[in-house]
Amino acid sequence: MSEKSDLLVIGHTAIDYIMTVEEFPNPNSSTPINTLKVFHGGAGANVAMVAATLGLNTAIISAVGKKFINSDYKRMMKEVNINTESMIISETEDTPTAFGMTNNNKDQIFYFYWGAGKEFAQAKPPKSTISSCKAVHLATGDPIFNQKSSAIAKDMSKIVSFDPGQDLNMYNREKLKEVIKNCTILFGNHHEIERIEKLLNCDVNGLRNFGPEIIVKTCGKDGSTVYTKKEKIKVDSIYRPAVDPTGAGDSYRAGFLYNYINGKDLKNCAKFASSVSSFIVEKQGCQTNIPKYEEVINRMNEFYGK
Amino acid sequence: MSEKSDLLVIGHTAIDYIMTVEEFPNPNSSTPINTLKVFHGGAGANVAMVAATLGLNTAIISAVGKKFINSDYKRMMKEVNINTESMIISETEDTPTAFGMTNNNKDQIFYFYWGAGKEFAQAKPPKSTISSCKAVHLATGDPIFNQKSSAIAKDMSKIVSFDPGQDLNMYNREKLKEVIKNCTILFGNHHEIERIEKLLNCDVNGLRNFGPEIIVKTCGKDGSTVYTKKEKIKVDSIYRPAVDPTGAGDSYRAGFLYNYINGKDLKNCAKFASSVSSFIVEKQGCQTNIPKYEEVINRMNEFYGK
Asked: What ipTM was predicted for this assembly?
């Protein structure tokens, strides 16, 4: 089959309710909400929206509720031509939703509703959708579905990237090994890469023995490092006053994959990715300040030089 | 002006997110949500939806967000012919929303987002809407807007009913006196009536000196009592296994007003109201099990005899 998509993203599409309160209520009491904002989120959708806005021909597989079909969220995906045909639509459960509350002391509490996301586990990865793309990115979602998808994609010699993110605690050593053996690129922030090293009992270079050719470790404002057999490439972050760091990691992955799929060298991938994420942190929400390709290139050249 | 509506309800239209969790998270941690249901709520809308379903020609004034205009909620109001023309639509804030979490221990926590509800305070009650109805019911909403509306309605010799409900703590003695002096009927549950008695330093019969001809005290499964100058009418509740008592009080008020506006005697009003609320408690949510007129009459006759 011809490759209709550049990138297939597998992982959550979610709704984020972000609230501020004076203080968290004690049991059997109530508190007024000072501010409430509703954002489009979910690591899978964050990556897909950024990749598609940059210009990749992108498809997504998430498990969502029926209301998603006529939602603003789907409309925004359509606006950047994301292929949503392989979405898993739950008959009974709503789209995954996160409720996050921050108090005056800047403490945070999160409530997560998996909802439709639970239906990933029983679903069968669609081979035709996987076969019609150049690369598959596995974001936070369901370990079993991710494992199955990675095996199919590997069999078809696709580029496979994997970012277990917050789901890392859902993987034991064996499950993790089963996914990363199919990977081309393993993404993680420094906490996550450290945890994976412990789980697999090796250092960052040792991780390549388990499958991935490329390890990308992101360290927030301290930049990112790309590890391959031949080299270790350290790239500074592009500092921008961070209004909200949420989604920065996902957008970095989308940017990195954009340049990787377009055949750029790894250093260039990391610089481009850092430029992308520098836009995301400037506004609250993961998908509120997605840059266009030209904006990313301009800021990248300005910061790193041509 | 001719009376186009039987009943104008003034008060909140809100969205209720009702969740169950194993336990409430500590600061800087997260918890999965076991169940999440989203219900249509808000005391004003609860009364209006029940009254309209029973057959009253009903209008509502609430302050809501722009998304309400194309929402399922508005569509459901339209289905029972509720006039929403005088709704206050906020340009910047969303529809009031409540987030309620219950843990395994049955403890509850509530977060309230006032949102568009704050815009009641600056809004001017629409005289033409008030003049075009037979009765005005003031539900939880904004004390100032309720006071202004009650004064206009009283001037126009409308039936005015008032249910301060959970908002009671927003009224001081003077504010409360200013509203209830314009009332025909004062509704409250036994906690609320007791609190009003304390605030005005009188007993339940003394409340009539402040304005209302009729005091209706509801006591959940222990029934309700109607106090007038001439009589004290005690009516048993119709017991139904309560899945969720939320909204029972609002539906009682709607039922009472339905019969009152239709000229029935007070005992009949209370029986009809009890029958209405017995349906509401049978399902989770305030608007999920609204009975039709015939169902209410049948259960009422069955329980109290004809």
From this structure: 0.75
